[in-house]
Amino acid sequence: MSTIDPHDVATFGGAAPLRGRVRVPGDKGIAHRALVFASIADGVSTIMGLPDGADVASTRAALVALGVPVESRTQDAALVYGAGIDALREPADVVDCGNSGTTMRLMSGLLAGRSFLSVLGGDASLRTRPMARVVEPLRAMGAAIDGRDNGALAPLVIRGGGLRGRAVSLPVASAQVKTAVVLAGLQADGVTEVTEPSASRDHTERMLAVVGVPIEVDGTTVRVRAGAPDPFTVSVPGDASSAAFWCVAASITPGSEIVVEGVSLNPTRIAFVDVLRRMGATIDVVHHDDELGEPVGDLHVVAAALHGTTIGGDEIPLVQDEIPVLAVAAAFADGPTHVTEAGELRVKESDRLATVAAVLGELGVGVETSSDGLAIHGGRPRAGSFTSFGDHRIAMAAAIAAHAIDGTSRVSGWRASAVSYPSFGDDLARLTEPS
Predict the structure, then answer these.
(1) Is 321 a catalytic residue?
(2) Which of 321, 334, 406, 427 is catalytic?
(3) Which residues lie across from 369 on neighbouring strands?
(4) Phi and psi of 20, rounded to 5°?
(5) I need a labelling partner for 79 at 20 to 30 A (CA). Which of 148, 175, 283, 312 fits?
(6) CATH classification number, 28-160+176-187, choose in 3.65.10.10, 1.10.10.10, 3.40.50.970, 3.40.50.10490
(7) pLDDT (0 to 100) of residue 75
């Protein structure tokens, strides 16, 4: 990347091999959960490796608004002074969840068991995202929750307490909704059981099992009783979704060879590696350690010729955040790639089926959209002018594509990338510096 101008446009100067080692920000999903679980433990927890993006900052600020002291020790480490869930206090103002759907959904589950009044708000994008999927099971457990469109949209108004455990079947696999129900179940009478139609990311189950919470996992069903985590210390591993951008960048840019260090190797987070390998990518996974139930290690990636594939079914919940950059890989691949059963992408930070199609169209790549999928015809992408649509993953996916093409490309709305990866542009520049 050569410049970011005052109008929030990033300019990319054409293809150059990526070489070296890179460490991505801490995993957002783990960081959100670590902060929330630490806030209801009785004692001091230490969380290192916190990502500096806006989403995790929203969760941290929400907990502070609920009376939880969070003390920064270094740029990416904090002490959370939990005093048990009963120490949470009614917020003095609307709790701002920013652009973070994870923050709003996890806070909904946490606050469903609290008898005081809370109002959860967020930015214009978050206020369009579906919340009925989390509101309805929490109401069924006894929480009083309202919002726009009868609680389908934020802001959400919550007065909790008096929860009763019950069996909940989710119509769509969602780690966020599952975690919200589990957080409510930790405050409910009896057993709370949540079942998904297929597996979603399992950070919650792994972490709670390690920190002393009574949790049972049986296939795609999770059961909890009332309880609380013990204080803990964790070093958050690198974010697998952020690592996916480098895996694709190195795969599609000739002459590239990189190592992405210290990444979460949770099988529910690196399914994108299986997709890329199926397309012909050369990626080695090296497991080094474990951190609060999470396997951690490196991804070694070498440039390779890719071919098309099909992504769908039970694989979708495990790669839905990576679909934008996997679509870029498909744009550079030989032959067609089909993404099916991915309608959930239409209700992310942007309508990602539409915005991905717009990026691929600007690349000159043939693409058709359906109600729940994409058909991508790999070819010879060209330089262009892209927009992020205010979506961090679209911004970085466009940048990865732009970098792999000869000629100058531009991405407008580049600052959206700061939601999850503020240093992305700097890391790209460093990995492409002449040796």
Answers:
(1) yes
(2) 321
(3) 374
(4) 120, -160
(5) 175
(6) 3.65.10.10
(7) 87
What is the 3 state secondary structure string of 144-158?
Answer: EEEEHHHHCEEEEEE
Structure tokens at 307: 């071919």
Alpha-carbon span 405 to 424, nearest angstrom:
18
d(CA 404, CA 131): 38
Of 134, 125, 201, 143, which is closest to residue 168 (Cα–Cα)? 134
Strand order across the 9-12 sheet: 3-4, 9-12, 409-412, 385-387
Packing angle of the helix pair 424-431, 240-252 (nearest 10 deg): 30
Instruction: Work out the mean pLDDT of the chain and round it to a whole number.
Output: 96
**149-181, pLDDT tens digit by residue?**
999 999 999 999 999 999 999 999 999 999 999
pTM over 0.85: yes
- DSSP assignment, residue 120? E
